[in-house]
Amino acid sequence: MKRCPECRRDYYDDTLLYCLDDGTALVQGTVSGAHLTDEPATAILSGDRGSGDDLTAVLDAGGTTARSGPVTLRLPSFFSWERLPWLLAGLLLLTLVGVTIRLYTRHQPAADSEPVRAAFNIQPPGRTTGAGQIAISPDGRNIAALATFEGKNMIWLRPIDSIDGRAVSGTEGVAGFPFWSPDSRSMAFQAGGKLKRLDLADGTVRELADLPSDIRGFDGTWNRDGKIVYFMGGSGLLQIPAAGGKPAPLNGYEPRPDGIDRWPKFLPDGKHFLFLSTNSEQSKSEVYVGSTESPERKLLFEADSNAVYSPSSDGRSGHILFARGEALLAQKFDPDSQQLTGEPFRVAERIRRNFNSRGFFSVSNNGNLIYDANSGVEEARQFTWYDRKGTAVGTIGQAAPLLNLELSPDERSLAVARRPLGITTSELVLLDTVRGATSRLGTTPGDLPQPVWSPDSKYVVWNDFSEGKFRLVRRLASGVGDAEVLLESPIRVFPTSWSPDGRFILYSAADNVSKRDIWVLPLDGDRRPYLFYKSPQEDWDAFFSPNGKFIVYTSDESGKNEVFVQTFPASAERWPVSNNGGMSPRWVKNGNEIIYAQLDGKLMSVAVKTDDKFEAGVPQPLFDVTLARAPRGDDYAVSNDGQRFLFISRGTESVALPITVVLNWSAGLDK
Q: What per-residue string of b and e applies to 637-654 under the rule 16 or more CB within 10 Å gives b?
């Protein structure tokens, strides 16, 4: 019930906003105080209404609740029964005039019908990891962004015409870029190793498929026929019904050893799509047009990011948006003929993109563009120590484009991979943890170098792709002498751990087609590598125990990532360590504790025994990795005493980065 604070008339119709007598704004419930009089309240009923004597209502003089029994309806003063026919006639006349005007103007060119371009910034709330992936709905009405609430990554949703947004329940642990259904009523996202669907009408979240563990990005696209095309790292392009089902590779876009296909976005016909193809050396990325009905692909141009299509308001040729360097560009494109016209032009001087060649921009079907102009955030990364509660307790060195790390056993040096945006060659440098001085150990194209220290802190081994060959190389940490090739492989290899006695190196081996497996490289004798563990699924991140008797590793053979321990040399014995998903395990130097990252983002601790037979306790949470603002929650180091954890933290301290919104971004371009 609503009431007018001036005349005290009550209205049962909660859809009314103003009093029908005096136009005063209605308030919910009753009003007491100075406006209280003895005049009977008037009831305006909503819902089904009778006629004549059957339509009655009575309110107590000061009451707010309708009684049962016979009631009488009193109409507002201007709305008497005598005037009713005239009011109805006037209403009909106004309706006819309105319809006439609308029919007339529909067929007349409007002089001022050109959309107006407008831009403003919005600020997602809360502390974030710095990831901040964004997506605007196809109808241009809602903006989704990743933000952190009480230590949990969630989707933050804000209507474009509102000053307020909300965290969406059920999206805890979200990562990567969410994407919208074509009707703007649902979203798909990844969390906890699953592809999930969120229906906004009722808040229902459903699991659609398992996802592999791969840090090379996640995104997808959804057409009007209910088909989702998505990828996870080097999975190739996969397709699945939006209602759920079994995912299947998209014909012609399966994983391949010479490159990776990512970032698909459907064109208006729902059959063709734009995607980015990057070679295995990561030295060249090209935008193509692909199809769900044919393996054929059409090259459009080279780019430094993904590409999206923005339709024009007249339904004719629109534009493709993409990044080159730090700028966001656009070029005219006809989706029917798949032809480009004209030259690319700048839309924004600065655009953020990550090391997986994903630009932080999104556009709706009606021309509303959102983007993140904070292009320097990916390079402002800092080595930061955190205690067991997740509190920052110190930093090492200066901010730089840091990508991965390995702490030496004596804790005096860090082996660091870094690569500025736009540079295709990575460099491996050593950082003095006390003085902050750096020295370069090597460079390599292609995959990031993943360093591993020898147990005496004198040597570093890393993966290399020089001369077009996948190799493991070793060099003195002092930089004296050349790098020694330990292994050449026809497929990608990544070292993970060096045995305490210095005799063995564990490494993962895989190309974009096969699953990762765990191998052992002996450093004496003929150095012939041999397979340590292979399951039908992914097995990786293997580390020797401090006493060299066990190996801890990650496997998703159970359907999701979990942490296991096996003996070394291998035997039939194996023990689970995690109990609710886990990855990226690390031994504490005393051998009595294993640290790992749970799939919901928590850093976990497990007490273990490794003397004669392995025993594991119940996992205990330490803190949420989002507190570390880490671009990769699976890349960290543990201090020798187990009391501190070193992460690569993004430089955003307390708030999320602003998002730029441009309404009708292409308005006036054709003039």
A: bbeeebebbbbbbbebee
Residue 547 lies in a domain: yes
- Name the pLDDT band for 127 (thresholds 50, 70, 90): very low
Tokens of 647: 């992460």
Per-residue pLDDT of 331-377, as tens digits, reads 999 999 999 999 999 999 999 888 788 999 999 999 999 999 876 66
Q: Both 521 and 431 in a single domain?
A: yes
Domain containing 174 equals 131-377+655-663
* pLDDT higher than threshold 80 for residue 457: yes
Q: What are phi and psi of 466, to 5 degrees?
A: -70, 150
Q: Are residues 59 and 93 in the same domain?
A: yes
Q: Verify that 61 and 3 share a domain, yes or no.
A: yes
Q: Is the peptide bond before 569 cis (omega within 30 degrees of 0)?
A: yes
Exposed (0-12), middle (13-18) or buried (19+): which is 376, by Cβ within 10 Å? Answer: middle
Of 113, 142, 170, at which residue does a domain stop?
113
Residue type, 541: D
Rg, Å, the chain Cα set: 31
In terms of Cα–Cα distance, which of 610, 665, 604 is closest to 636? 604
Q: Is 389 left (phi over 0), alpha (psi -120 to 50) or beta?
A: alpha
72 is a domain residue:
yes
Place of tokens 């930061």: 384
| Cα–Cα dist 536/538, whole Å | 7
Quote the CA–CA distance of 402 and 425 in Å, as a whole number: 13
Q: Is the pLDDT confidence value at 13 over 90?
A: no
The model's pTM: 0.66
Q: How far is CA 624 from CA 17, 508, 551, 601, 602, in A?
A: 46, 27, 25, 6, 4
Please tell me the chain's helix, strand, coil percentages from 3-state DSSP, rounded to the nearest 5: 5, 45, 50
Residues 465, 552, single domain; the answer is yes
User: Is 671 a member of any domain?
Assistant: no
Domain stops at, among 67, 83, 113: 113
Encoded tokens for 78: 């201007």
Q: Which CATH number characterizes residue 356's domain? A: 2.120.10.30
Asked if residue 220 and residue 331 are part of one domain, the reply reads: yes
- Let me know whether 516 and 475 are in one domain: yes
Is residue 664 classed as helix, strand or coil in its secondary structure?
coil
- Residue 199 phi, psi dihedral angles, 5° rounding: -100, 115
Q: Which helix (H) or strand (E) holds 94?
A: helix 84-106
Residue 576 to residues 224, 410, 553, 589: CA-CA distances in angstroms? 43, 30, 10, 20
Contact 544, 527 (CB under 8 A): no
Regarding whether 311 and 187 lie in a shared domain, the answer is yes
Per-residue pLDDT tens for 280-339?
777 789 999 999 999 999 999 999 999 999 998 777 789 999 999 889 999 999 999 999
Strand order in the sheet with 118-122: 118-122, 659-663, 369-371, 361-363
Neighbours of 109 (CB within 10 A): 6
Gap between the Cα atoms of 173 and 182, Å rounded: 24
pLDDT (tens digit per residue) in 327-344 = 999 999 999 999 999 999
Chain position carrying tokens 């190793």: 193
Give the per-residue pLDDT at 363: 98
Note whether residue 49 is domain-resident. Answer: yes
Give how far Cα 360 sits from Cα of 145, 312, 480, Å. 11, 21, 42
- Tally of structural domains, the chain: 3
